[in-house]
Write a structure and sequence with these properties.
Layout: H1 2-20, E1 32-38, H2 59-72, E2 79-85, H3 89-101, H4 110-122, E3 127-131, H5 145-148, H6 155-175, H7 181-188, H8 191-205, H9 208-230, E4 239-245, H10 249-258, E5 263-265
Parallel strand pairs: 1-4, 1-5, 2-3, 2-4
Helix pairs in contact: 2-4, 8-9, 9-10
Amino acid sequence: MRMRVGKMRVAVWLGFVLISSPLCAQPAEKPQLLILGAPHFANPGRDVANSEIEDVRTASRQAELERLVERLAEFRPTRVAVEVDESRQALMDERYAAYLEGTYEISTNETYQIGFRLAALLGLDRVYAVDWSEPPPGGWDPYNYAERASEVGLQERYNEFVANIQHRIAEESAAFPCTTISQWLRKFNDPVRELIDHQSYYEVARIGDAGAAWVGHWHTRNLHISQNIEDLAIGSGERVLVVYGAGHNYLLKRQAEESDAFEVVNALEYIPHDHGSRC
């Protein structure tokens, strides 16, 4: 009987050691990341096809943006990051400080309409510039698939690719006047749409060596952006919200998940459900 008690005590002690061991400790909670993909409200015209969006500074659109930002604030971000080149952080700081003082009138760009507005609502002292857009080694010429398509007998493939993209964007632009901003953003942050947007880059990669090289550099750009975002997560309690062009959604989310740097949060959980049409 004593031997059994002794064995029981040993077993209990071993169980305590195993439970208390660092090997059995619960992993630290990962920082959370919410990526809000958006069509550019003030499109710079640099893409194959560019959305045409009416000025969002009207009273009705501003009300929609206020409602959106209030809902995004429920994510409780500790940091807000935007698609502005990292080299312009000082300019961003200057503009954001002026915005808080009421002396900077923001443009239609989603960086300001969503990023600045959200950070100010949360009382954050900075909006972070995390974009990276350096040219590839040797310059852009070897990566210019648009100009090189005819040289490699793929002009027809290029023309078809452009026509398909332009048709889709034109349909969406035509629908925007009757669509609330939240409805618009829910469309672009739907996982099915994100995959469709991502698949279009494979069409580019099929346009000769230049197309494949360009897509390779696109991945390089997004890896740099991902690292800049990761650098913001200095603790397990960080909750980072990123406002970016919707074409980046798929890659940035996959990179954040596959690197195990973040717990990625579905943006659809924080975009209001608007019903009906504006028209």
